[in-house]
């Protein structure tokens, strides 16, 4: 059966005025802000697919991440207005490291960059403006003229990155491509993806949609239709060196040309309706069970010690203070919520994972699933890394424990300089000490839930 489609777009590049904050996200541990330089505009795009008259809405945006409270606000606004059912709405961040700092929770602007309260208030002002723009984009796209379309899916390959965690770990070169054609046979739009950290530009103060934006513009210029980039499970996938503007251009062209090659090959599988959607949420427990008073007391003592041996200039000192404050108030979290979403078409299943999942989830889910499967990351909200069991139990032995969340032989508290510090979590996610992940540990929870959604 054919669908109806519309594509909308809005510029979300902060400019002062009217945006109150030009602070940037993507790198710690000191202040980093834009001063007006823009290499490529930051944009959000909305694809609406009407399936039997019912809209399925996908929004992708040039954002580093979306905090949980912002995601929930956007979703509830759209659902409460009756614009879309909750399972039929998907929000995706490109994870550009050259965009705006978005939100004041995870990552924590105070821990990440030692921002003052006035600066955090400004960040929230910019966050509010971008959020309003995303919601209005959905409203406006739903009002656009609907074009009857057919869908088809194929995959290509682009070598643009490496595995930064494990020398012999998976490197994801897959380029998923979903083409939308009018019923008259003309190309209408392209949705494409890759799995690679958008850090190719490096740590400067220039706003840039990064290599995904270069690729999108490359495809659009060649074909004259909208091209929407979607990020994959790139938690351990790093853009090739050397990082700098020239690398951004190069990798973007490599990715864009891979998309054009796929579109030119013609080996597409038909994608049909009806679309079946589902959205669920799991809780990923931390390795240290701080609901146990004895464990909590031990963790409290360790963070007090960290405060004594470090100074205020250290993000680890600031993080420790925040953890102590939460513990003293009885508000220390014991788990990290993780939304997982599935859109099933005839001929294609999409699985959208929240947060920063590592490549093993792409590899293992596709190995366990019979059929075309597109695994997306940074979906709906992003508040930390979700590593596989091998990476979690390695601690500081791999990439200084950054993705595992712990180091210095202590998995009960956040490792110094790890994601648990910037994202303001008390410690690493739960793992098994053995190679096979046990029930109730991170990898097992994510895999079991994902495969359950794919098979239901």
TrEMBL record:
Name of the protein this chain belongs to: Ceramidase
């Amino acid at each position: 059966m054919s669908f109806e489609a519309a594509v909308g777009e809005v510029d979300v590049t902060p400019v002062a005025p009217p945006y109150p904050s030009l602070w940037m996200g993507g790198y710690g541990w000191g202040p980093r802000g834009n001063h007006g330089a823009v290499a490529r505009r930051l944009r959000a795009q909305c694809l609406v697919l009407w399936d039997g008259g019912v809209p399925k809405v996908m929004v992708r945006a040039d954002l580093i991440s979306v905090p949980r409270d912002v995601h929930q606000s956007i979703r509830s606004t759209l659902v409460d207005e009756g614009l879309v059912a909750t399972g039929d709405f998907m929000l995706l961040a490109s994870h550009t490291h050259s965009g705006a700092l978005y939100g004041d929770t995870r990552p924590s602007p105070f821990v990440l960059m030692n921002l003052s309260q006035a600066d955090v208030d400004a960040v929230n002002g910019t966050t509010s403006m971008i959020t309003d723009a995303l919601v209005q984009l959905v409203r406006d796209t739903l009002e656009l003229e609907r074009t009857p379309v057919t869908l088809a899916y194929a995959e290509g390959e682009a070598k643009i990155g490496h595995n930064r965690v494990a020398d012999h770990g998976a490197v994801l070169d897959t380029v998923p491509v979903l083409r939308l054609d009018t019923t008259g046979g003309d190309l209408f739009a392209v949705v494409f993806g890759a799995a690679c950290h958008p850090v190719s530009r490096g740590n400067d103060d220039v706003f840039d949609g990064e290599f995904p934006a270069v690729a999108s513009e490359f495809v659009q210029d060649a074909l004259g239709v909208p091209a929407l980039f979607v990020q994959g499970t790139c938690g351990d996938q790093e853009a090739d060196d050397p990082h700098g503007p020239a690398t951004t251009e190069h990798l973007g062209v490599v990715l864009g040309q891979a998309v054009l090659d796929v579109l030119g090959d013609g080996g597409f599988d038909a994608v049909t309706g009806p679309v079946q959607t589902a959205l669920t949420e799991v809780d990923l427990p931390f390795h240290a069970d701080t609901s146990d008073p004895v464990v909590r007391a031990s963790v409290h003592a360790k963070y007090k010690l960290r405060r004594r041996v470090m100074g205020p200039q250290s993000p680890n000192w600031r993080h420790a203070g925040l953890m102590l404050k939460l513990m003293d108030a009885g508000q220390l979290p014991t788990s990290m919520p993780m939304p997982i979403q599935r859109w099933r078409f005839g001929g294609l299943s999409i699985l959208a994972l929240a947060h920063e999942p590592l490549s093993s989830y792409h590899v293992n889910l596709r190995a366990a699933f019979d059929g075309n499967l597109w695994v997306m990351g940074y979906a709906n909200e992003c508040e930390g890394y979700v590593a596989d069991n091998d990476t979690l139990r390695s601690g500081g032995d791999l990439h200084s424990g950054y993705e595992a969340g712990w180091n210095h032989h202590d998995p009960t508290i956040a490792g110094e300089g790890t994601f648990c510090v910037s994202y303001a979590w008390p410690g690493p996610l739960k793992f098994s000490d053995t190679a096979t992940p046990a029930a109730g540990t991170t990898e097992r929870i994510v895999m079991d839930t994902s495969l359950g959604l794919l098979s239901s």
